[in-house]
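I'll show one example:
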Amino acid sequence: MKFGPIPTLQAKGSILAHSIVCSGRRLRKGVMLEDAHIEQLSASGITEVTVAQLQENDVHEDQAAAELAKALVPDVRAAGLECTAAFTGRVNLVATGPGIVDLQADRLIALNSIDPMISFATVPNYQQMRKGGLVGTVKIISYAVDAEKLRSACALGSAAIKILPPQLKTASLVVSQNANRNDEKGISAIKTRLDALGITLEKVIATEHEIDPMAKALSSLKSELLLILTSSATSDSNDTAPAAVRAAGGQVERFGIPVDPGNLLFLGRIQSRPVIGFPGCVRSPALNGADWVLSQIACGVSLNENSFAQMAIGGLLKEIPTRPQPRRPKK
């Protein structure tokens, strides 16, 4: 692509690089100059314009953006994404329903390394999305790009991003209570989170904060996902709520995650059903580690030690003003 000023009379078929007001009308940048434009510019006394001139191996920005988006999402239905029409070298990828983003980071980094003029920006991997949420945007920064470089980008980006929809449809919640706490706020916050994932909260059981009644409640539930909210924070893998999971015939796979707020979450199973023991910060609607774990479990992601370790990068989330032990004590 050639870029620079040329005589107006030689600009037919070129792309106008900068918007110009002439004869009281605005010619926007990016327009392909035709005879009528040349006459309009000349009549206004504009003898020179800055343009982009495509060469034999160049692909126009809109065509290039559309081709790259098609490569990234070859099957929109399977990917849970839709692509907007190309405009000014941009195509947006939008979620068609709830779920989490699943992307091939190494391939997308390589794609963005081919040419600074070929870019694809995304939300973080595993970010929870709602219907209509912007997941990524293809942007061809120049007015055209080299066809060979575009082909390389398309190959690297082939089917490299999608939405994982929720796999679990039902959940039940065990809430341990004491005389000083009514947990309607916590129940409401959890229901809102489940609603966003299309999961029905089938049953809520309130129990004393003791192993046996909590274990009995857990054993009675039939939902695909079991949740626990305790009146007293879980402080150890042998504390009351994890012990109740074991007493109900389950196992505790993880206590503690490197996400703050959300450190005191635990994850387990009763038979094949996942059990999430929520930290107290789940009572707030603010983003916390419970959101990350809940959304990934709901969407069928298997979490292991490496999964949790990766959460540490970016895992320092916004402080919740109402949390009982803020990171920095008040002076």
